[in-house]
């Protein structure tokens, strides 16, 4: 058996890792021997992994997850997105039900940290914050800011927009105060929700609103999230209306900072990535939703080579899966398809490969997304204990767990010791699911026990 670093001796009262050594070390042995409460054990056939980080998710879109993905982006927003957001803003009971279920399913999928888009109504976003806080999830929550109506003439009976920039900025201030009221009485390490400035994207925001949000971010040191260069239609619309690309619009408003996370970025090129690196701006890569709404795949390898900080997002409901494991697999798959195109192009035969492997995707799903939010995403002394226990092999039945098969191990001798290796973990990465996830901890607190 292997000992976790989890409770309570190796994690302090603030949920921070205070001891991190092999279970067989002298210090670990002493810790175990002197333990005054039961020690949590990780059985042979299981391992600890940092909890996943979902760097881009639209909380109200969980209401219609899996619908309408046959439509182009702007039509989909008009038919589904704006309608669902308005519906939740008008029905707090429904909003609480949707957000409570969202929090529960995030935990089931091993997601401990999430960056959320909300709606435009302050009260609905505070319900979202309450639901995430109650579930014990580390959540960065954005009240939408948008003062331009993008609904089509056919649906103008719905006007889902804030009256003007001044009204939108006042609402953001109220949201900031509301989030503060939710956590101010809690110990600092239990303040697991944080407000994030959230201009939906350039087509929904006047230059006045964007500039106001930029000033507010700088004044209060607030994080920012939005969408950047997601689709051809969106990019051309911005260029036509603002006479510049949306990356330039964001920079002009002081919204490209080291506190900024931009989703998608599929239509950016190497010079843009280099510029984002200089600014310290991070990217939320959402391979599934890109497949539906972006005419081009995101150049992930090129962005990584430019040292842009990147994490993975599910982009519910532009992506239909809430599982970051799906996002990892899709990120690798898309990159492999891009590599196939590159290798078949004789004119680019000497170019650097553009694919990533499963280990790199696992980094993006944990450490990559966490770093974009100013967190650790790894196990080390002083870091929050955000972890999941993944069980892949049952030593009592000699069989893999869930969809996993390890045929060579089924005939092992009873006293043979099982040592997990890279190939066994890779099999989990390809085939694993919720049946393999036994426990989840956030800031040292158990939020899932199987």
UniProtKB/TrEMBL annotation:
Pfam families, per the entry: Amidohydro_1
Gene Ontology biological process terms in this record: guanine metabolic process
UniProt entry tagged with the keyword Zinc: yes
Keywords: Hydrolase, Metal-binding, Zinc
InterPro entries: Amidohydro-rel, Metal-dep_hydrolase_composite, Metal_Hydrolase, Metallo-dep_hydrolases
Reported cofactor(s): Zn(2+)
Residue ranges annotated for the Amidohydrolase-related domain, each copy included: 47-391
Entry's Gene Ontology molecular function annotations: guanine deaminase activity; zinc ion binding
Gene Ontology, cellular component aspect: cytosol
Name this polypeptide is given: Amidohydrolase-related domain-containing protein
